[in-house]
Design brief:
There is one protein chain. The chain is an alpha/beta fold. It has helices spanning 17-28, 59-70, 87-96, 123-135, 151-154, 164-186, and strands spanning 3-9, 33-37, 73-77, 109-115, 139-148. A 5-stranded parallel β-sheet has the order 2-1-3-4-5, with helices on both faces. α1 packs across α6 (164-186). It is globular and about 45 Å long. The two termini are 13 Å apart. 41% of the residues are buried.
Amino acid sequence: MSVRILALVGSLRAGSHNRQLAEAAVKLAPEGAEVELFEGLAEIPYYNEDIDVEGEVPAVAAKLREAAQNADAFLVFTPEYNGTIPAVLKNAIDWLSRPYGAGAFGGKPVVVGGTAFGQYGGVWAQDEVRKSVGIAGGKVIEDLKISIPSSLTRFAETHPVDDAEVAEQLTELLARLHGHAGETVAA
């Protein structure tokens, strides 16, 4: 049985270290798991109930919901913008939280992590994402975290997949998330 993990990245920047973490997760996925990096968060319009009408949902928002519905688990990487989460990521969470009571997170396991320039690796933003995703219906796995500080210097010349410590942390995180997702799929 293959487990599908959908990765969402809260940074739109081409050279984003959080995107690089997601790319590393794709490469380090354990046997029996597939990590898909969702593309297109920048094109999703801000959530508005007036445009969230059956048969009229914007195509890119429908694509996000479909990818999320097909996922068994989620891996969310976020930078920290002014002490909180980027608007593009909050918007994606809002789209995935609807329709009310039947959102795409649907009790599926979610792990939140990331990297940031500061000394704490973006933990404030990650905590906000955990809160938002939990309210939106995700089953946040609180004891699975990865917060990497000093991203600008740490990854100045090294992709996260080539950083032995980061690769080891991601590999362990992915194995444990795979286990949680497998339990959910089997239930």
